[in-house]
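Notes from hallway chat w/ T.B., transcribed later so I don't forget. T.B. wanted the structure written out for a chain they're using in a teaching module, and asked if we could keep both sequence and structure tokens in one place. Agreed to drop them here.
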Amino acid sequence: MASDSSKKSTLLYKKGKFSYHVLTPKYRDAALVVLSRAFCTEPVVSALAKIKPEMETTFLDWVEFVDYWMDHCSSNGMSVVALDEENHRVAGVFIVRDLLMVPPGFDTKYSSDAKTLTPWMQFLWHMDREATKKMPELGHPGKAVDLWFLGVHPDYRGNGIANYLVKGVVPLCAKAGFKYATIEATSAYTSMAARFNKFTSVHVEEAAQWKWKGKPLYTNAEKPHGTWTFWVKDLQTVDIATPPPLPPSAGTVDIATPPPLPPGTVDIATPPPLPPGTVDIASGPALPPGAFDIASGPALPPDIASGPALPPPQE
């Protein structure tokens, strides 16, 4: 006999052909792929690789990084996934963590010089510490939740999905009993979304001025990126039952689909074209024998984002 929890609907609301659900382990791996693909061109990390090729961060590096958080984020009842109901595909996802939660083994791995994302993560921890100095309550257990990673699949950008993911996440965090929601914005577009959703800036730093091992590292981020901001929203002001409606689509801010960038700038939401002979594992067919993946490794096994259709969500 099915348990009460298995009968409980995860549906939050529907907008157009997309349904927005509380993320559960059922869609854990599909969400992991979408997030990792979206962050392949994170602004400061991608820019750094241009001047320090040895610091290039691949798709598989991001998969390893994000995977540490997925068990917590897919089971805490605060993360949200957008589903294409007709095709049973993950269109976008926003994962949320308790601000003080760190997965076992994560700090050890991302304190090592062997990982290209170690400086990036240490910069984030630095931002957390500085913000907590200014708002000590953020360091109290159960007080703050971190809106951690948001990604929209390339096939679905331009549908306002990012705004609706935020709309779903914030009330869930308030309902869970947290007083504050935080965002560590490493791109200009994330900061735009934070302002749109009425977050308040607590701590700001220029990436070019932050020092790794005594020297500036992230010195060449393309504008409008390069400024990191720690944002906070008081969740006690949120109306859980009736979140404020989003403005017309023409005026909404979609983290994953910002206005066109000027020539030569780096767009975190739209990665550059793949080299000839490669296939985007998040949306393409299996790689042919001998082809190499964007992550610079051998052909990967069938990807959950492009394999058999996922079962319909429970409603």
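Follow-up for T.B.: DSSP finds eight helices and ten strands in the chain. Might be a good example for the class.
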